[in-house]
Design a protein that fits this description.
about 280 residues; about 15% strand; 8-stranded mixed beta sheet; about 45% helix; alpha/beta
Length: about 280
């Protein structure tokens, strides 16, 4: 699909729809995007690309994409299904914030798996950032609460909390996540915090069902798209933002500790059009 026909050629819009479908936008959103481009009557490939960016911008969230890192301390809570990339994303963010001059504390609140705690501690060590780990079987909400109190007492300005993986169908675990959110608000004395659902870009439209259920359990302030490299498309993020009005804020674009960047919707859409996504 890299060699799309010129916009005015027969079949251009059919090819464009196929390209968007292959990028995991889903039939409804792909059709909506194609009609939006068609209505702008582009005459060149460049105009078609600009039209696609404009249409995507009209349906995606208009909320700010910068992380909210105010508060004493600020707090970023990561959650999602098993294997989505939560721990990796948390470690990369800790590294980035430390390099930006912040003083993060990583809180390992995956108390169901000793290996989960060990993995988060290992990422914290790689990032050169202190950590606080809950003991096996401890209440994860209590671990986050204690982590926030510890950060405040030690002068850390950001808490990065990693939680256990849970499927969107596990009601008891979703209720537990809601409790973690409420306890986090209490620990922060009501100050806002970042509540980020980590999505595996490889999973495509499955992510939409995940996001809907997680958003019912805990108020989401943003999305982190993991594994957004050459092997993943991630176009479902457009449908998710359109339906839930929750902005993607972070994107994992590789395997190294430096491979976490702010999500740029325009660059993302242009990569889809180029067939690079």
């Amino acid at each position: 699909m890299r060699a799309l026909s010129p916009p005015l050629a027969d079949g251009f819009y059919h090819e464009l729809e196929e390209l968007l479908l292959s990028a995991d936008l889903g039939p409804e959103m792909a059709s909506r995007m194609v009609e939006g481009v068609r209505s702008r009557a582009p005459r060149t490939r460049e105009e078609a690309e600009d039209a696609l960016v404009a249409v995507a911008g009209s349906v995606m969230s208009k909320k700010p994409r910068d992380l909210i890192l105010s508060g004493n301390p600020a707090c970023v809570l990561f959650y999602g299904v098993n294997g989505a990339g939560k721990t990796t994303t948390a470690g990369k963010l800790a590294h980035r914030l430390r390099r930006e001059g912040r003083k993060p504390l990583v809180v390992a609140a995956d108390t169901y798996r000793a290996a989960g705690i060990d993995q988060m501690v290992a990422w914290a060590d790689r990032a050169g950032v202190p950590h606080f780990a809950g003991s096996g079987g401890a209440d994860p909400a209590s671990v986050v609460y204690e982590g926030v109190q510890l950060a405040r007492s030690r002068g850390h300005d950001v808490v990065i909390a990693d939680t256990a993986g849970r499927l969107q169908t596990q009601r008891n675990l979703l209720e537990e996540l809601g409790k973690i959110g409420r306890v986090t608000v209490k620990a922060l004395d009501g100050a806002p915090y970042e509540s980020l659902l980590v999505l595996d870009a490889v999973l495509g439209l499955t992510n939409l069902a995940q996001a809907k259920e997680f958003n019912k359990a805990i108020p989401m302030t943003g999305l982190a798209l993991a594994k957004l490299d050459s092997s993943a498309k991630g176009g479902a993020i457009i449908a998710i933002e359109s339906e839930l009005d929750v902005p993607a804020k972070l994107a994992g674009v590789g395997e190294t500790i430096d491979d976490l960047v702010p999500f740029d919707p325009e660059s993302f859409v242009r990569a889809i059009f180029a067939g690079d996504r």
